[in-house]
UniProtKB/TrEMBL annotation:
It comes from the Bacteria. This is Carbon-monoxide dehydrogenase small subunit. One of its GO terms (molecular function) is 2 iron, 2 sulfur cluster binding. Signal peptide: none annotated.
């Protein structure tokens, strides 16, 4: 076992992990942050996306032991300090960007990473960026709409589906 220390959602945390412990497992089972979902464990679905040192990564592809000292943000860290939904989360709610919600944490984290790099993406850029995130329910249309709305763009002309 190896001791690993990180800053997760602004809080210093540490734990003992095996060399094979995935970041997703450490977050969910070690820290109880079950908002990060695991849909496949094989880097396909994107449900497990978190930010590590400002970059969106699939947390099922990273070993926790390799991330000593990292700054990690999970979906639990996306709310406002008063506990209300953050901008991207609120846009998903406002524009019906989810149904079952299983993919939503990863979608929100991927979208937030895009908006940090590209504050006013086009619809095509949003769709391209979210290619690594699979949703089985929504058909993606309202997810894309939510991301565009979160960027402050007018989505009034985009028909709801
Ligand atoms: S659980 Fe990580 S990509 Fe599916
Ligand atoms: S809302 Fe169900 S998988 Fe996306």
């Amino acid at each position: 076992m190896t001791k690993v220390s990180m800053t997760v959602n602004g809080k210093a945390v540490s734990g003992e992990v095996e060399g094979r412990t995935l970041l997703a497992t450490f977050l969910r089972e070690g820290l109880g942050l079950t908002g990060t979902h695991v849909g496949c464990d094989t880097s396909q679905c994107g449900a497990c996306v978190v930010h590590v040192n400002g970059q969106a990564i699939k947390s099922c592809t990273a070993f926790a032991a390799d991330l000593d000292g990292a700054k990690v943000t999970t979906i639990e860290g996306m709310a406002n300090p008063d506990g209300s939904l953050g901008t991207v989360q609120q846009a998903f709610q406002d524009h019906h960007g989810l149904q079952c919600g299983f993919c939503t944490p990863g979608m929100v984290m991927s979208a937030a990473a895009l908006l940090a790099e590209n504050p006013k993406p086009t619809e095509a850029e949003v769709r391209h960026h979210l290619e690594g995130n699979i949703c089985r329910c929504t058909g993606y249309h309202n997810i894309v709409k939510a991301v565009l709305a979160a960027s402050g763009q007018d989505v009034g002309q985009i028909a709801a589906e």
